[in-house]
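in:
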């Protein structure tokens, strides 16, 4: 069995073989440097090993998979390992022109396309194509496979690019576009699949019902499956899902379950739902407009169904599926979809950007959360909302290790929240005392600094000061501490937590004394 790096090691040792690979097949070890810094969205390592004369780069990922990135911002997996990738590159020269070919086409049709490409290579720069290919395959211990088989393997690899091998521009965090245009299943189909399997399992054997309903993630997924595949015999299952979800609290899944149960219009379900709604203000709000009489139950559910749910998963907002994918533990699937959504946002997507920031934060991807929150803050016209968004941005930056950026965001937030200073009266006019009675002072209006937002900004300053000190950013730490301490002293009712945060920030400013030898 050969080592997975065997072919690459041989190429690096053998200048003649490396020259053939670079000249005829455009796999050049001397071009192993991409035009911009890139990284995988998953954070897994990747190493550039070669490039081509268009500025494209071949990377080896963890586990050996080979990823190709073009200079035009496209990327795709081209082989499960370097041996397979080289067999494709040498056996299917001009492979980038073939990636979208239809494998169901007739054999003669595909062979004619391959032949035209190779004839063009022979005529322009690779007259020794056949001999060079034989020398390389033999010298590297690789196989010569049918070109149709190589195309099939290439397309299978390309379809496996996302989510694990999604490539990003390292500076901006934007995703590379797919190298191919091959059809892929929609996100909802992948996320909904386990719920559909569980739903079929329960329908075949009710003994599975309690175990599936008792698992919050499986329950949520099977509820979605039942939403899009409704059968009259599911009422008992839906009641079980509803009651188990009610123990979790006022969730979106609870309202969905309530609607699906209510569509059956049974009086006993009206009684139970009404008692649930009256048991808690949050439940009362969640089940808004609930009817007083059982005969109106079906109409209430149908109106909710039409406005919020429906029976076509393709019409559901993508955030529904990314959130469910995250709950299922499919972190990279959720991350890839969210990054594509963020890349496609525009000035009208202010509300969506806030949601994306929260979803990235739930994934612990603070870098992408910062990108979303920065855009979100820039779109706020109202001073209070922009200031609040900047404070949220500062919190993310601090936790991401960007203490100076966090301090600057807090300074911007304070400037925005304070607003412009009041106009100064002209000094060249004489003051007139007309002897008029002064108006009675009105009730004092508290400023944002004296309210909850002021406490939040104070805390962020203090936490940023401590974080900066721990990073060795002493000037940033001192500046943040001064601002935080000034705001703390001005708070009418500072909490004990804020006082402790100030003490911790001040303690962090002084390096620990060296221990005696």
């Amino acid at each position: 069995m050969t080592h997975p790096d065997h072919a690459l090691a041989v190429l690096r040792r053998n200048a003649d073989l490396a020259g053939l690979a670079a000249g005829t097949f455009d796999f050049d070890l001397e071009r192993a440097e991409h035009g911009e810094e890139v990284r995988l969205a998953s954070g897994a390592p990747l190493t550039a090993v070669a490039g081509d004369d268009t500025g494209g780069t071949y990377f080896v990922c963890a586990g050996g998979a080979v990823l190709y990135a073009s200079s035009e911002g496209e990327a795709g997996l081209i082989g499960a390992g370097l041996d397979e990738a080289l067999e494709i590159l040498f056996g299917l020269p001009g492979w980038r022109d073939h990636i979208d070919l239809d494998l169901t086409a007739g054999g003669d049709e595909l062979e004619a396309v391959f032949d035209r490409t190779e004839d063009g290579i022979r005529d322009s720069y690779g007259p020794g194509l056949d001999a060079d290919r034989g020398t390389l395959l033999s010298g590297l211990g690789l196989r010569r496979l049918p070109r149709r088989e190589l195309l099939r393997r290439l397309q299978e690899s390309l379809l496996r690019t996302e989510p694990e091998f999604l490539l990003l521009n390292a500076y901006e965090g934007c995703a590379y576009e797919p190298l191919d245009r091959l059809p892929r299943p929609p996100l909802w189909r992948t996320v909904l699949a386990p719920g559909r399997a569980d739903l079929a399992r329960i329908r075949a054997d009710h003994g599975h019902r309690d175990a599936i309903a008792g698992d919050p993630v499986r329950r949520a997924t099977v509820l979605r499956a039942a939403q899009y595949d409704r059968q009259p015999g599911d009422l008992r299952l839906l009641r079980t899902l509803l009651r188990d979800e009610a123990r979790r609290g006022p969730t979106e899944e609870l309202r969905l379950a309530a609607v699906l149960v209510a569509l059956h219009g049974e009086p006993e379900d009206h009684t139970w739902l009404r008692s649930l709604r009256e048991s808690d203000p949050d439940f009362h709000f969640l089940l808004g407009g609930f009817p007083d009489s059982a005969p109106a139950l079906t109409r209430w559910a149908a109106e909710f169904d039409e406005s919020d749910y429906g029976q076509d998963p393709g019409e559901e907002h993508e955030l529904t599926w990314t959130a469910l994918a995250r709950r299922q533990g499919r972190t990279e699937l959720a991350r890839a979809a969210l990054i594509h959504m963020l890349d496609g946002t525009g000035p009208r997507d202010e509300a969506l950007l806030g949601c994306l920031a929260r979803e990235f934060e739930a994934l612990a991807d603070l870098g992408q959360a910062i990108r979303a929150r920065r855009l979100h803050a820039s779109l706020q016209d109202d001073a209070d909302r922009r200031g609040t968004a900047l404070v949220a941005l500062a919190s993310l930056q601090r936790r991401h290790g960007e203490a100076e950026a966090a301090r600057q965001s807090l300074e911007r937030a304070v400037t925005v929240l304070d607003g412009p200073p009041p106009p100064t009266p002209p000094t060249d006019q004489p003051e007139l005392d007309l002897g008029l009675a002064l108006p009675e002072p009105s009730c004092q209006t508290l400023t944002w600094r004296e309210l909850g937002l002021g406490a939040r900004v104070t805390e962020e300053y203090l936490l940023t000061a401590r974080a900066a000190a721990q990073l060795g950013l002493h000037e940033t730490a001192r500046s943040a501490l001064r601002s935080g301490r000034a705001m703390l002293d001005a708070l009418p009712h500072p909490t004990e937590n804020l006082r402790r945060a100030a003490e911790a920030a001040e303690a962090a400013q002084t390096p620990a004394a060296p221990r005696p030898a």
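note: The mean pLDDT is 92.
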